[in-house]
Protein: G-protein coupled receptors family 3 profile domain-containing protein
Amino acid sequence: MFNNMTLLVLFPLLYSVSVLTITHNPISSFTSPTPSAAKVCTLQNSFQPAFVAKGDYVIGGIFPIHYNQEMPDLNCTYRPPPVRCNGFDPRAFRYAQTMRLAVEEINQSTELLPNYTLGYKIFDSCSYPLTGQRAALALLNGLSEDDSPMCSSASSLLAVIGESGSSQSIVLSRILQPFRIPMISYFSTCACLSDKIKYPTFFRVIPNDDYQVKAIAQLLVRFNWTWVGLVRGDREYGRFAVQGLLRELQGTKVCVAYQEILPLLYNRQKTLEIIQVMRSSSAKVVVAFLSVGEMTPFLRDYMIQNITGIQWVASEAWVTASVFTWSKYYPYMGGTIGFGIRKGHISRLSDYLQTVNPQMYPNNLLVKELWQALYGCSSSVSSDSKLPPCTGQESLLEQHSAYMNTSSPRVAYNVYKAVYAIAHSLHNLLLCQPGSGPFQNNSCAQSNNIHPWQLQYYLQEMKFEIAGEEVNFDLKGDSIPYYDIINWQRGTGGNIEFVNVGLFDGTKPAGEELVIQEDRIIWTGHQSEVPVSVCSASCPPGSRKAVRLGEPVCCFDCVPCDSGKINNQTNSIDCRFCPDDFWSNKDRTACIPKEVEFLAYDSLGIALTVTSVVGACLTVAVFAVFFYHRHTAIVRVNNSELSFFILFALTLCFLCSLVFIGEPTPWSCMLRHTAFSITFSLCLSCILGKTLVVLAAFTATRPGDNIMKWLGPKQQRFIIFSCTLVQVVICAAWLIDAPPFPSRNTKYERSKIILECSVGSSLAFWCVLGYIGLQACLCFVLAFLARKLPGNFNEAKFITFTMLIFCAVWLAFIPAYISSPGKYADAVESFAILASSFGLLFCLFTPKCYIILVKPEKNTKQHLMGKDNK
Structure:
């Protein structure tokens, strides 16, 4: 299966590794191998496995039993020594023992691989790709020249179980790929390994990170953590996991505040820089894609810096690491939540682990290191050891959770499933009937010469159940995606306990995979309330988000909605307009009906009403005084009939202002302007008639003038009637053509509906006012001409002054009316009516009432005509 060409091309890539070389003529090494080639194969170096067991079929196991390493001096002047491993990991040692247990169970089984035995070779990768390469090559070469089949026949190595880290698995897969040896990883989750073009022989019994990052993204969205930090290792696992998470977060409201990378070889200065970024950031949730070996030294410095208040979201690589169960971690890491591998049950594991001790394995250095890690004693007899010697009689207790925690195995259970997956595949391969096999010409594999690629075919098709769980591989070599949601909580003894608070089932429909029991979660700081991690606080209803220039979309300002717009949702990016007849409330959270405004009977309306009634009452009182003294000189001389007409018209003028108060209706709108215009036209017609009479009365004293015969009572009535009739005709045409009507004005003030009377025809409206103005001007001119006529009581003077006030009021009315909003326009018009009416009443009738009531001695014809002295 393997030729010398392959060895010469592949093996020199590494230094200080177990390599077979050919000792005969180098030229012959490029020719086909000869039967005698195996005799000249020699090992240039060796890498001893931790545990070995012979069998009919051998599988390899590679575990990171140490989590740290020291690089040798590479000065190229001598053969460098191997990488020195340190930092013993009892948890990884347990994984290796789980593989041994599974192999022993299979060998003892009468149903699985009867009459055949499995062997194994287990190596320590030191959690380092270079050491993993040495282990892989040692698996290929064999332990010695005698048992190495590399130069003569197919390897007895059928499959490899490993590695834990994705970076190491990538290296191992590439090493094993030319030999088509399948490997099953129990802890490598990088989604990159699902690429069957690059890694055709790779399988795993743990879900790939595509599912984990989907679960983490849903978790962040679920708890509204929109501002998070990312910390990852400088390996494929962290790089591809972060890439996948960022891809999943696209289209969500979650933003990444920072992304920090721990160097491949731990650097304390770089770690302190990362910790400083975490301390200064407003992101209170940190997602960490780190291995246990990366997380352990990082947390040491993290705790020294005394940082608290960070809510950690853990990846499956370290969320259930028993090394973090010590109570010293709880003040800093308590409340951590993450996704752990689905736990299983291995019934014999606890008893089997207790059989491992220095007495059973006196020459095994790893067992001695286990005892040293668990009991703080030394199994070495060297005098330079600073630890007390181990007796070898120490008993393994449950307190050694890093090694003895078998209550809910997760990674160890994956190792257990991986071994059984190989066994079931091999069992199916051996059951093949000649002539019905899956290979060329329907052939089967030869039981005494099985090639790894033949086993790979059966691995791809394998399906079995273990402890009620179905195990199989999809076309990408991945397994069914299940995760337990783990929460770090304080146990009764003060240590950290991994509490299951939910699950993620990747087989369920989108959006239904995540099931969480939120009431069972304890968050960072031992709080029961969900931590808040946002760049900007949520915008409450009534406001919208305004993204800050040059910053992520999660960082924004809250801008109140404009008037007339509302938003009843949190964190909305826009406010919407209210319907036409509605307006936003004070908080901008709901549309309420617009305030309807008109000149109602409020304080202003009541004031105008009272003024109108008082004016009408005063007019009636003057009417009564005049009627009671109708036979006196001042009433008779000033034409009592016209005076009564004027008082009647003034009463109507005062009362017509009441029509402007109240909600506009079609009838009230038509009545407002017509009543106002006709009553004032009537009043001014009477004043015009009185002015003509006064002017004629004083000019009739000249010899030969007979003008009074043309201004008798009938002629006066005709003047009043004809002048008023013109206004009536204008109003009638107005009402017929385009009458005033009630309208809802929303343009002047958008927050209100102003109920007003639209004039209908603006031309008619201004014609009505223009006619009244024409009458007033005519009265003013005529009265002005008669202002110097003789007599003690010249009414023309009072009419002149009255018309001045009347014209001043209505000239001021025009701009005030046009510029007044809403109900105030009606109030201005009503006020102009009242003001001009009071002006007419007081200027025309106050002097006469004064003489009637206060100076009755002047109420004689002689006095009024200026003849009393004569």
Notes: Residues 666-699 form the longest helix (34 residues).
